[in-house]
Amino acid sequence: MAGQMLKPLEILLADDNPGDVRLFIESLKDGKILNHLSVVWDGAEAMAYLKNKVLTGQAPRPDFIILDINMPKMTGLEVLQQIKSDLELMSIPVAVLTSSEAEKDMATSFAYDANCYITKPLDFEKFINAVLSIDNYWLAIVNNTDSQEELL
Predict the structure, then answer these.
(1) Rounded CA gap, 11 and 45, in Å?
(2) Which of these, 62, 66, 114, 126, could form a disulfide with 12 (CB 3.0-4.6 Å)?
(3) Residue 77 near residue 105 (C-beta atoms within 8 A)
(4) How many other C-beta atoms are found inside a 10 Å radius of the C-beta of residue 130?
(5) How many CA atoms lie within 13 A of 123 on its CB side?
(6) Positions of the chain with pLDDT lower than 50, given as ranges
(7) Which ranges constitute the DSSP H helices of the chain?
(8) Strand pairing partners for 11?
(9) What is the DSSP letter of 92?
(10) In DSSP terms, which residues pair with 39 in a beta bridge?
(11) Which helix (H) or strand (E) holds 96?
(12) Helix (H, G, I), strand (E, B), or coil: what is residue 32?
């Protein structure tokens, strides 16, 4: 694996806060990690993207989804529950990145099979580090999975 090029990740970011989306994009740029990022602005749009574009082949299947809990039209928890109950989508890892520190939100996220729960840091540098840690972790997981599939 040494010297092997890692493939860019397909990331779906569902967040209704333009400032947080901008910070997320800047964090990826600062980390110099090449990824393809699709952004949706509410829960209903997230499900429409996944069901109408991904499942019909009009958009690439995300390698992972970053999901905010507090979104209009459909909450992030509702989106998470639908993703994890859909046979076509349930294998996509979902990272909850939210401003909510409520234990109930965290417990519900894990009950709905979220892969991780991260509270959005208020500090810019900590926010960048949180995004890069999510990205680096999933980059390693996805590329290791792909490498193992090639060996089979």
Answers:
(1) 15
(2) 62
(3) yes
(4) 20
(5) 4
(6) 1-4, 145-152
(7) 18-30, 43-48, 76-84, 103-111, 124-151
(8) 37, 64
(9) S
(10) 13
(11) strand 94-98
(12) coil
Residues 6+ apart with CB under 8 A from 60: 10, 36, 54
Identity of the residue numbered 101? E
Q: Residue 107: CB partners within 8 Å, gap ≥ 6?
A: none
For 74-100, write each residue's pLDDT tens digit. 999 999 999 999 999 999 999 998 888
Q: Indicate the residue type of 119.
A: T
> Burial code of 56-95, b = ≥16 C-beta within 10 A, e = fewer?
eeebeebbbbbbbbebeebbbbbbbbbbbeeeebeebbbb
Q: Which of 139, 134, 108 is CA-nearest to residue 121?
A: 134
Q: Please tell me the predicted confidence (pLDDT) of residue 123.
A: 74
Which one, of 79, 94, 11, 84, lies nearest residue 44 by Cα?
79
Are 112 and 77 in contact by the 8 Å Cβ rule? The answer is yes
99, two tokens: 């401003």
